[in-house]
Amino acid sequence: MVTTSLAPNSADDPLAYRPVALVDLLDRVLATGVVISGDITLAIADIDLVRISLRALVASVGALTPPELPDPLGEVG
What we know:
The chain is built from two helices and two strands. It is of the alpha+beta class and 77 residues long. The chain has a domain of 26 residues. It has a two-stranded antiparallel sheet with strand order 1-2. Strand 1 and strand 2 form a beta hairpin. The longest helix is centred in the middle third of the chain and has 11 residues. Pfam families: Gas_vesicle.
């Protein structure tokens, strides 16, 4: 009798599912940023009455600001 598993094996697949702590996931999202978008359409009898498009960027301030460049003259302040 042969048994098969529906869950991927991490030895076979490097991208297999693995548990991730919520804190780690939140840290990764804030470090790189994520865009959330969606569309809502209210219609009656196949006639679109209201259409709302939503787009949100979630990221930390440090992820959105460019890195500071060193002063070429070496001046401080």
